[in-house]
Amino acid sequence: MSAPADSLEAVIQIAFTQLSHAREANSAQLRLREVGVITSVSTGIARVAGIPGVGFEELIAFPGGVSGIAFNVDQTDIGVVLLGDYWHLQAGDEVERTGRVTDVVVGDGLLGRVIDPLGRALDGKGPVTAAQRLPIERPAPPIMDRAPVTEPLQTGLKVIDALIPIGRGQRELILGDRQTGKTAIALDTIVSQRDQNVLCVYCAIGQRESGVAKVVAALRERGAMDYTVVIVTAGNDAPGLTYIAPYAATSIAEHFMEQGRDVLIVYDDLTNHARAYRELSLLLRRPPGREAFPGDIFYIHSRLLERATHLKKERGGGSLTALPIVETEAQDISAYIPTNLISITDGQIYLSPSLFESGTLPAVDVGMSVSRVGGKAQRAAYRVVAGDLKLSYAQFEELETFDRFGARLDDDTRKTIEHGRRIRACLRQPEFSPVSVPAQITVLLALAGGMFDLVPLEQMDDAEHALRAAAAEIPAQVSGRLGTEQKLGDQDRAAIIAIAEKALKRFQPQPKQAAAEAGNA
Q1: Which position among 100, 285, 372, 414 bears the catalytic label?
Q2: Distance between CA atoms of 26 and 357, rounded to whole angstroms?
Q3: SS3 letters for 300-334?
Q4: What is the pLDDT of residue 393?
């Protein structure tokens, strides 16, 4: 009888010993949680009470996986901007502090993907895989970390590369009325970066989903999605998502820039961004100012665009080039948001509705467009051949007005007008047909030398295509120098002119025919 009792006592003793060790090893961890309560919900906005320790722009967790940003930190409650579908939220629901600010996934895994500002995949290819996250709001690089803009960003568009050049690290505004080709210029620029070692980020802000789908399809068809990240907010998304979209896109682009890479970012467009911010501000009872926009509307765009720069070699030497797009109404570039962005950026490309309607595409108004930085980064060959082109084109536009009224013009004026018409014909370019640097230089040299002046206007398109095709005959050593800082030498110029003359000869009238035409005139 004693043996089973001793065995049972030993088992009990072992059990109590194990429980004692487990009790000593286990220490209760207390986690401090700040929980608040929703007091009211409106369009994209929630009022929350009960989390006194929350900080400005801190991320707040709502029921159903919805997040929000603390935007107004008042004494009695907090105004929160909701990021996502908020229709299931109601007064009395509990919310919780997260202790962190809004961030987004970054890395090479985003290339070729379509995501929303929170990093969630929208292309049906599964979740985005990235090991690093960055806050969407980051300070701009200090002035001492920046380097001058010295490298050009070739857009493939003759009118821009020759007359309104853009440098890597520049901020160039694209503005114009609806349906004038603003997005087309940005997409042409993205397509032209193929094999140029430039990564691209396209941020669609409050656009129609069908329009964004067409953009993505066009980029994928031309192989541009291999080096592009697309961030999308649709028109029916919460205004909070529309507001944070450009900041999230810039953080993704900055990650690549800090690795020493060149990046192009397109904001399409900041008009919708400003409207979303105005909506949020009015719902949060912030004082309205001009056109009902809040007083800090200038600041939200300036702190966004100041992040575009060219870093010094000690910081990796990367660059971030920004192409913000803004929509004007009835060609009013003196409206509030356009003037703000014109003063923030380093130049603007203005698209004219009248040029668009006349079929002059891209409809760039050369007289109202300017690049305050890109000329410093423009290749030396461009500066030689395009130096007088802008002045000649501007003179033509002034004189063409008189010609429309049937005024009697002297021979020199008529020659200027005919030359200008050929400049305009050469600067026309279909969408998604980028022109290489050697072909552009060849066309510009022929224009500057007056070789197109004898070509009939109805044959200008054929003549220009023939000249661009002939540019492939330029010797390799000459075409190699065109993409460097070396000036265009006399021998290089003579070689290119000889190729141009040969290509255009069949489009120019023979001497007898020209004399007969002159006699008839």
Answers
A1: 372
A2: 77
A3: HHHHHHCCCCEECHHHCCCEEEEEEEEECCCCCCC
A4: 87
Amino acid at 508: Q
Q: What is the Cα 283 distance to its own chain's centre?
A: 29
pLDDT tens digits along 208-259 = 999 999 999 999 999 999 999 999 999 889 999 999 999 999 999 999 999 9
Dump pLDDT digits (tens) for 147-206.
999 999 999 999 999 999 999 999 999 999 999 999 999 999 999 999 999 999 999 999
C-alpha dihedral, 389 to 395 to 398 to 401, nearest 10°? -90
CB 353 within 8 A of CB 331: yes
pLDDT of residue 5: 61
Distance between start and end Cα atoms, the chain: 137
- Say what the pTM is: 0.90
Whether the link from the prior residue into 362 is cis, omega within 30° of 0, is yes
Q: In terms of C-beta density within 10 A (0-12 exposed, 13-18 middle, 19 or more buried), how is residue 309 classed?
A: buried
Q: Check if 422 is active-site.
A: no
Q: List, for the chain, all residue ranges whose pLDDT scores fall below the cut of 50.
A: 1, 514-515, 518, 521
Amino acid letter at 94? E
State both tokens at 264.
């192009």
| Cα dihedral 164→169→175→181 (10° resolution) | 80
Torsion angles phi and psi, residue 451, rounded to 5: -70, -25
Asked if 372 and 344 count as a contact pair (C-beta separation under 8 A), the reply is no
